[in-house]
Design a protein that fits this description.
Two copies of one chain form a homodimer.
Chain A (H helix, E strand, L loop, with lengths): L5 H16 L14 E4 L4 E10 L11 H17 L4 E11 L5 H18 L4 E9 L4 E9 L15 E5 L4 H12 L17 H11 L6 H8 L4 E5 L3 H12 L1 E5 L9 H4 L5 E6 L9 E8 L5 E3 L12 H4 L6
Parallel strand pairs in A: 3-4, 8-11
Antiparallel strand pairs in A: 2-5, 3-5, 6-9, 6-10, 7-9, 8-10
Helix pairs in contact in A: 1-3, 2-3, 4-5
């Protein structure tokens, strides 16, 4: 017996099944017309887009449809949070092969809904697009509202405290476990057997396939005086370097505050919030990991030294073309 | 000598080259931070997303990078226009193989910019994402503003006039020319030789690869009393059926007003605006093509008869897997 595929079901049925899984729309116009219409308090909208592609961004042996829906929502919500905004809507462009099981798509819709409910209550999928493709791709656009100034990367000032909310290196640790222990002799991804993992290892794998960025803390940080903020998607040193350059300052990081894990400096995909706050104003949920000093020879110092590794990943140079 | 590829250039250079080609941002926060921040007059934002995928949606032998950037913008702008809104920004998620020439990507960025300048002045690319993929995919989200009620599919009333702005069937005629005359013996797409086409045929092919939907007429129609509106992407009969069902009315179309071309009824991809207006209120730019009558046995009648063909295309059932 074979699972029913989207090619057998056709676009209309697939769309109907997805819509049945999503949270009810609270928009002025939700799914079903040419476009969604959303109320935007404050007269400004925050908008960002981020894509998950089968191969470079995920393996189907390691991630369920639910995981992928969740992660596609989470990484986009993090970009909205990093501006100090509150997410209000997602638009999801899903392109997939016609042999994709309908049940997989339903699972993905469940993951989208549950990530919104858990990480950003009040935000829901309000629009999208279905297309055929040889490559399963989930392109999400997130929209949000601001009730104050946007928190940009460029506002850090000497004297500020550098602070982090969320994990540093945990998702990368999970990816390392997947690559080292869940591939066959030819290097193809094989399903994860949780029974062979310690609880700590299971947490790391979960952080990779189903990240939980601290979305609500983005808006809270903005209200509590964050001078600059961004989400850490490429690793702490690389993203801190970007923030330091945009602000024309130096970020001095202390590894003691990061638990001494080398992956904490270079591991990406946790989508933690990296922010700077005036001294004595670091809000609950953030932990101090360094300080802002004047612009100097290096944008980032780690324990007083120029970092020797910076992390990061180039989608065009670094992907090995494997899917699985 | 080989063209420089995105794999050789890397993400940072590709992004820099794209940004150099886009129109300057007029947003509060444009490209370069975690998200864009856009002013939204009227406190509402209109949002839609639509994707072009290599294979089902285009062949590289028939469409240049410029054509694809233009078309990706145009089809998304049409969804915003169809709500009676004015487009203000595009977000572009571009996923592509690492052997994609950098020059192709620059050409695509030029097409995005020029479509915005020509079809929706004031709208620009304000954000996006670059990712690697085996399949070239352009997922665009368009945002717009409304200064009145959204024009939905559901507002048509018996007694209204059915009107159309833009082409009906021209893009489908162009696709027919491409499929019949620009494929090799194995069915692979081969480049178009304009010298063997009549001026009318060249116009049809241009309408397919580089459509020019009447974007500004969407906002104008809303101001002039349109009771319902949508863009025609799947063919006039099928999309009129959707509008009729949403409005619980019958749309009676007259082929004489459509020039007698059978493709006018079933051809998609022109992204014309189909709207209904109170009698005597059809604005300039729209032509009357029928009338709205009470809900009956058929949602659409063509010259008084139930239509025998309706057009439309299912991405999962109808794509033959060829790319080219």
């Amino acid at each position: 017996m074979h699972a029913r595929t989207v090619g057998q079901a056709g676009e209309t049925e697939v769309l109907r099944r997805i819509l049945a899984r999503l949270a009810p729309s609270t928009a002025e116009v939700g799914p079903g017309d040419d476009a969604a219409v959303l109320r935007v308090a404050g007269g400004r909208v925050v908008a960002s887009t981020d894509t998950l592609v089968h191969g470079p961004d995920f393996r189907l042996a390691w991630s369920s449809g639910h995981d992928l829906g969740w992660k596609a929502a989470a990484v986009n919500l993090a970009d909205i949070a990093a501006m100090g905004a509150r997410p209000i809507a997602l638009l999801v462009a899903l392109t997939m092969p016609d042999d994709t099981p309908v049940a997989f798509v339903e699972d993905l819709a469940d993951g989208l809904r549950q990530a919104c409910l858990s990480l950003a209550p009040g935000c829901a999928v309000e629009g999208g697009d279905l297309a055929a493709s040889d490559t399963l791709t989930i392109a999400v656009t997130a929209l949000g509202t601001l009730d104050g100034p946007a928190v940009r990367r460029s506002g850090a000032r000497p004297g500020d405290i550098v602070a982090l909310a969320g994990h540093a290196g945990l998702a990368a640790h999970g990816l390392q476990i997947l690559f080292e222990r869940f591939r066959d002799v030819d290097g193809h991804a094989v399903p994860v057997d949780p029974a062979v993992l310690t609880p700590a290892e299971r947490r790391a794998v979960a952080a990779q396939v189903r990240p939980e960025p601290p979305i609500a803390l983005g808006h809270a940080a903005a209200h509590q005086g964050a001078t600059a903020m961004m989400d850490v998607s490429d690793g702490l040193v690389l993203d801190a370097t970007r923030l330091a350059i945009a602000s024309r300052v130096c970020l001095e990081l202390a590894t003691a505050a990061l638990g001494g894990d080398p992956l904490a400096l270079i591991g990406g995909e946790d989508h933690a919030l990296l922010a700077t706050f005036p001294r004595d104003a670091v809000p609950a949920g953030f932990r101090a990991i360094g300080r802002v000093t004047p612009h100097g020879a290096h944008p980032v110092l780690v324990d007083g030294e120029a970092p020797t590794c910076r992390g990061g990943w180039d989608p065009y140079s670094d992907w090995d073309q494997a899917r699985g």
